[in-house]
TrEMBL record:
The keyword Iron does not apply. One of its GO terms (biological process) is regulation of triglyceride biosynthetic process. This is Thyroid hormone responsive. Its main location: cytoplasm. It comes from the Eukaryota. One of its GO terms (cellular component) is cytosol. Keywords: Cytoplasm, Nucleus. The lineage of its organism: Eukaryota, Metazoa, Chordata, Craniata, Vertebrata. One of its GO terms (molecular function) is molecular function inhibitor activity. InterPro entries: Lipogen_MT_Stabilize_sf, Spot_14.
Length: 149
């Protein structure tokens, strides 16, 4: 039995999510030795990133973790909080509550359709940006491997 593959419009959120997952899966297959990425910084528009910027290994692990959420859905909130390390969980919870209160005040003024478009466009933008980061990590790893040979 053949499964039909539905084609979505270019800017459809499902297309963006599928592309992100595919690019990260490709990154995982290409990057055989992730530890080589530890001391490498991401180039931003041809300029070297600042010293406090995350290294490529951090991007690699973050992109993989987000792909799991994109592919399998979010963990229930309680499980997510338990995964966050001790004191950091309380900080994150306080920040999230504060941000949520600010968002509720702002979003309460908007109707549901406007809220949807705001979150939809934000998610679309973030997934597109993360896809570009995954492609950059893969490209940088391939450059490292070419130099090593």
């Amino acid at each position: 039995m053949q499964r039909q593959v539905k084609r979505y419009p270019k800017n459809c959120l499902l297309t963006v999510m599928d592309r992100y997952s595919a690019v990260v899966r490709n990154m995982e297959q290409v990057v055989m030795i992730p530890s080589l990425l530890r001391d490498m910084q991401l180039n931003v528009n041809g300029h070297q990133a600042k010293d406090e910027a995350p290294n490529l290994y951090n991007y690699f692990t973050m992109l993989k973790a987000i792909r799991v959420d994109v592919d399998h859905g979010l963990l229930p909130r309680e499980e997510w909080w338990s995964k966050v390390a001790g004191g950091r969980a309380h900080e994150a919870e306080a920040e999230a509550a504060e941000t949520e209160d600010e968002e509720e005040g702002f979003l309460g003024q908007l109707d549901l359709e406007a809220q949807f478009h705001l979150h939809f466009s934000s998610l679309h933008h973030i997934l597109t940006h993360l896809t570009l980061k995954a492609e950059e990590v893969t490209r940088k790893y391939q450059e490292i491997m070419e130099q090593a040979m």
